[in-house]
Specification:
Largest sheet: 6 strands, antiparallel
Number of domains: 5
CATH superfamily of the largest domain: Carboxypeptidase-like, regulatory domain
CATH architecture of the largest domain: Sandwich
Number of helices: 2
Strand content: over 45%
């Protein structure tokens, strides 16, 4: 069974288990808790809660007007629990973010807390230039997301800053009316792209292009949609633009070492274009394979590109292929065919460099990683010098960290007189050195926490949750007298919670209290905030 099929089975099962499901026994242990709105901290009434194991259940109940639920008569063992409500979804980073469930123990002293958030909806119509609806157009809902080191080995739609990428969070197709609707979107800024579906027949109109909402062919001219929780954003209509493409062709010149290789060794050269227009750096562009020493790429839109050629030895899996020679250069494509290009391949070579640390960074072991399609760790000497071995002329991306300094991040990168962010482009004349700056920006949030009676809340837990990446959570126990705290944190925008419970899960109405609005943390500055702990929920049997 595929992952997609398994997910669908679980999801539908959670929604549609039959009424004949086993009734819970009358005696035994208890599992109870609350289903809450992660944004407001209020209980969600009428939410459908399911409980079961592979052997027993499933059993169902609904939350009361305060969002509380209770299962009784259970065997004292572990169960899987999940909650559903129309208009809500699990928050990013929670155990059930992908529609699954979480494990709980019957008879546990601490009530179960299930957090859901309201989702946004984006809808609209796709038409051609005459206003006629286009059916079966593919709709992609995209957002900017930070590049993470652990996924850098996969080809990504990086933006020009090298630090962010385009992430697809929703996809669907238009119906016969040209209409589409994408649901279960978390609050945030999104881009909508509509792409006409071609049948592969000669009669297809190849001039019809993938178009962003806002009437643009690249992200630089696209209009973002600021989706907010619980709202439907209709009339996000896209008119498919038509633009003819041109031909880019030329000759490949192999280095002497390549010409001297035995002809029996299988090699091939691939040519690819990456757009540099607007913000869409390194997006997937047209590509082709060389035919002898000639290449030709069809249907290229006007714009600014990098053209990259790589000669591989054809042996085994793609990631195991040996790169023998390469080339990269920047070209401008206009309304006419671009012919007569010369692409001069060069063999790999070593690139020396130096790492420079910001004065606020800790003196620890530096880790530098170079990435194009796969990750390569680079050894950095105590004096900051390093050498990247066997590097082809190409565009490379970097990540940097310092052992013991959580705030360390990559700063400016310089090569061949050019400064960039997130990486570098090594062309034929670039022999180094490569200069890499590591910076350690940090701000802080401080304040005090008091309980409902006004007394200092010593031992409370402070939770900082990024408004950009909700899965980015920082939890700190207050250990200062008087309930005061001072927490260093990366610059950004955070929601701040004071938690009296031990689970440290923010946004839970009876354990945590959210501060007054998001707090913006700037580099080198302190942001004060005052918090009050919520009144604790009475124990069972008390009044």
């Amino acid at each position: 069974m595929s992952i997609k099929t398994a997910f669908l089975t679980v999801f539908l099962g959670c929604l549609c288990w039959p009424a004949s499901a086993q009734p819970a026994p009358a005696t035994g242990s208890v599992i109870e808790g609350d289903v809450v709105d992660g944004d407001t901290g209020q209980g969600i009434p009428g939410a459908r809660v399911s409980l079961g194991t592979e052997e027993d259940g499933p059993w169902f109940t609904s939350t009361d007007g305060a969002g509380h639920f209770r299962f009784t008569g259970l065997a004292k063992k572990g169960y899987q629990i999940a909650a559903r409500q129309i208009g809500f979804m699990p928050p990013e980073g929670s155990p059930s973010s992908f529609g699954g469930s979480r494990r709980v123990q019957a008879g546990q002293a601490e009530p179960v807390r299930i957090e859901l958030i309201r989702y946004a909806v984006i809808a609209g119509i796709v038409t051609d230039s005459s206003g006629e609806p286009i059916s079966t157009a593919q709709i992609s809902v995209l957002r900017k997301a930070p590049v993470e080191a652990r996924v850098m080995q996969r080809p990504e739609r990086r933006l020009a800053d090298g630090r962010n990428r385009l992430e697809t969070v929703g996809r669907t197709y238009t119906d016969q009316r040209g209409a589409y609707r994408v649901v279960r979107l978390r609050p945030g800024a999104y881009y909508v792209q509509a792409e006409p579906r071609h049948s592969g027949m000669p009669s297809d109109d190849r001039t019809a292009r993938a178009t962003y909402y806002g009437g643009a062919l690249d992200l630089g001219g696209a209009k973002p949609i600021e989706a907010t929780a619980g709202n439907t954003f209709a009339n996000i209509n896209v008119e498919i633009l038509k633009r003819p493409g041109v031909r880019v062709s030329g000759r490949i010149v192999a280095p002497a070492v390549q010409e001297g290789r035995a002809s029996s060794e299988p090699v091939f050269t691939s040519i690819s274009l990456s757009s540099l227009s607007g913000e869409s750096g390194n997006t997937n562009g047209p590509y082709a394979s060389a035919n002898g020493d000639r290449f030709e790429i069809q249907d290229v839109l006007p714009g600014r590109y990098t053209i990259e050629a790589v000669t591989h030895q054809r042996n085994g899996r793609p990631e195991a292929r040996e790169e023998l020679a390469g080339s990269i250069q920047t070209i401008e494509v206009d309304q006419t065919d671009l012919t007569g290009l010369t692409v001069a391949l060069q063999p790999p070579r070593d690139l020396p460099g130096i790492v420079r640390l910001d004065e606020r960074c800790h003196s620890g072991k530096v880790r530098l990683t170079v990435s194009r399609f796969g990750l390569r760790d680079v050894a950095v000497n105590p004096d900051g010098s390093f050498v990247v071995k066997n590097l082809l002329p190409s565009r490379q991306w970097l990540s940097a960290s310092i052992e013991g300094d959580e705030f360390a991040t990559l700063g400016a990168v310089r090569l061949g007189g050019r400064e960039s962010e997130g990486g570098f482009m090594m062309q034929g004349e670039d022999y180094g050195p490569l200069s890499v700056d590591i910076v350690c920006p940090r701000g802080s949030v401080s304040g005090e926490v008091r309980d409902a009676s006004g007394a200092p809340a010593e031992g409370a837990l402070i939770a900082l949750v990024s408004t950009v990446e909700p899965g980015d959570r920082r939890l700190v126990r207050i250990d200062q007298a008087g309930g005061r705290f001072d927490i260093p944190v990366r610059p950004g925008v955070y929601n701040v919670f004071a938690c009296s419970g031990t689970n440290g899960q923010p946004s839970l109405s009876r354990d945590c209290q959210k501060g007054p609005g998001p707090v913006t943390i700037k580099d080198g500055t302190n942001s004060p905030v005052a918090l009050t702990l919520p009144v604790g929920r009475p124990k069972e049997g008390s009044k």
